Amino acid sequence: MTNLPAYPDFTLSLSGNEWRQAEFINISKLCTVGEEVDEIKEVWINHSRELADGIRSFHRLHIRRQIGAAELFIPLFELKALLKSYTPGSIALDDRPGFVKNGFALNTPTGYFYGLEENGIVKSLGVHTATGLADREIARLVKNFSLIYVHWCNCNILTP
């Protein structure tokens, strides 16, 4: 965390639980992603129950241990051009003061794309508050940068 925003135009606030819940991962980690998703499915099947109105109660959680860093190498200027979002913002976490160090956020009509960058290179990339229209943007990113997109909570994986 840092006291100064990397990009002062706007701030995307996330809870700690939202960080990396829907994210892009290097395609070399496809097998590991599959193993993690299988473990999450096991929790859904054997360690949760539906209450009412689609609300689910979990009596066990899965913490991803194998996946590690996303290992992306995307030039930020290319990401901004592809998303047609040229003014980045910063990221703040609800439960911590300050801003995420090296954090950036891009606002599109379909949601927010956010992550970490170092020297103009995107190292991690997630999606927040995306509408169904974000599916096109997500598919373009997966194809153009040869990535995997994973929505961990829904156990969805998109490959190129």
Q: What is this entry, summarized?
A:
The chain has helices at residues 30-46, 76-83, 134-145, and strands at 11-14, 22-26, 48-50, 56-58, 74-75, 90-93, 103-108, 111-118, 121-128, 147-151, 156-158.
Give the SSE layout.
Blueprint: E1 11-14, E2 22-26, H1 30-46, E3 48-50, E4 56-58, E5 74-75, H2 76-83, E6 90-93, E7 103-108, E8 111-118, E9 121-128, H3 134-145, E10 147-151, E11 156-158
Parallel strand pairs: 1-6
Antiparallel strand pairs: 2-9, 2-10, 3-4, 5-9, 7-8, 8-9, 10-11
Question: Describe the biggest sheet?
Answer: 7 strands, antiparallel
- Sheet/helix structural class: alpha+beta
The count of β-strands is 11
Radius of gyration: 16 Å
Q: Count of helices?
A: 3
Give the helix level as a range of percent.
10-25%
The separation of the N and C termini measures: 33 Å
Write a concise keyword list for the protein shown above.
160 residues, alpha+beta, 3 helices, 11 strands
Verbal overview:
The protein has 160 residues and is of the alpha+beta class. The chain is built from three helices and eleven strands; from the N terminus they run ββαβββαββββαββ. It has helices spanning 30-46, 76-83, 134-145; strands spanning 11-14, 22-26, 48-50, 56-58, 74-75, 90-93, 103-108, 111-118, 121-128, 147-151, 156-158. Strands 2, 5, 7, 8, 9, 10 and 11 form a seven-stranded antiparallel β-sheet that branches. Strands 1-6 form a two-stranded parallel sheet. A hairpin with a 2-residue loop joins strand 7 (103-108) and strand 8 (111-118). The model has no long low-confidence stretch (mean pLDDT 91).
